Amino acid sequence: MKSGQIRQRCNLILIIILFYFMFFPIGLGAGQGSGKAITLTDSVQTAKTAKRMIEDLDFGTLLICPYKKYKKYKKILEETVDHSACNYELYFEVDIYDLENVSFRLVPFYDDVSPEVTKKQIRKARTRAEKIAKQIRKSYDTKPERIRAAHDYLCRYVRYDEGSEDGGYNPVQTAYGALINGRAVCQGYSNAFQMLMEALGIPASVVLGDAHAWNAVWVDGHISYIDVTWDDCNSAYGSVDDTYFMRSKKFFQKSHDWGDGYSKVVYKRYRSLWVGR
Question: Which residue range forms the structural domain that includes residue 48?
Fold first, then answer.
């Protein structure tokens, strides 16, 4: 091959790379050296690693996978956050690691909230959840009783409040907003309930439907669904409604839209994951 042809091909490759980065504006290897790197090998390892990072609020570790498996692992990482008590507070940011791999890093969901503030608020909410769970364990012996006590606590002490509408960070969407500020929308209620279940060691999950969120719990091998938000909004002063407490999927399907992605496979994966910290 002549030197002129080689130069032409090199120039063409360079143009393709530059064109790619114009439409995929993320930095090559950004975040390398900020912490250890873990190579993703399979679905279970990916979900467990993501769960550990969420629990530890680990913003330093990089998760590495080949480009060809990017979509598979991205979906698992997204699902792990979505089913946790920290969705709308954390997410896995994707970046280019090298010429063959991509990386994922846990970061705050909102750009206008620093990692330090995010960690502080999540830890404060977890501490409150642990204190509430401790009192519930002292007062009730069975899982159904403890689940009901967590449900009733949120109905009594949290008020539905949409908060600001500026498009930035809104604490009413978080467990912090519900457990510390006493104000939340459906996302905040479901995250707070999930955090209480984790503190009680009860398998549970956040369910993200179409423009709404609620929870699933596993008791005696069966899945039941709870919508604390709607029970709170339906409650008269001084009482707690239980219309949407420990109901079947068939019952919920009459009023709740699941959206996409909540298959039995997904539920089995997160039932084994979120069994308490």
Answer: 24-108
Q: What percent of the chain has pLDDT over 70?
A: 77
Residue 30: band (very low, low, confident or very high) from pLDDT cuts 50, 70, 90: very low
Using CA atoms, how far apart are residues 175 and 184, in angstroms rounded to an integer? 8
Count up the domains in the chain and report the number. Answer: 2
Whether residues 101 and 172 share a domain: the answer is no
- Domain at 93, CATH number: 3.30.110
| Residue range 121-177, pLDDT digits in tens | 999 999 999 999 999 999 999 999 999 999 999 999 999 987 655 567 789 999 999
Distance, in Å, from the CA atom of 180 to the CA atom of 176, rounded to the nearest integer, reads 5
Burial of residue 213 (CB within 10 Å: 0-12, 13-18, 19+) is buried
Q: Are 86 and 177 in contact (CB under 8 A)?
A: no
Q: Are residues 202 and 76 in the same domain?
A: no
How far is the CA of 181 from the CAs of 64, 172, 233, in angstroms? 37, 8, 17
Q: 49: which residues sit within 8 A by CB, 6+ positions away?
A: 38, 40, 63
**C-alpha to C-alpha distances, 59 to 13, 36, 109, 115, 257, nearest whole angstrom:** 34, 10, 12, 8, 33
CA atoms of 89 and 122, how far apart (whole Å): 8
pTM for the full predicted model: 0.81
Beta strand segments in 85-244, E: 90-96, 101-108, 159-160, 183-184, 204-208, 213-219, 222-226
Q: Is 248 exposed, middle or buried (0-12, 13-18, 19+ CB in 10 A)?
A: exposed
Phi/psi for 60 (5° steps) reads: -100, -35
Token output for 199: 């503190």
Q: Amino acid letter at 70?
A: Y
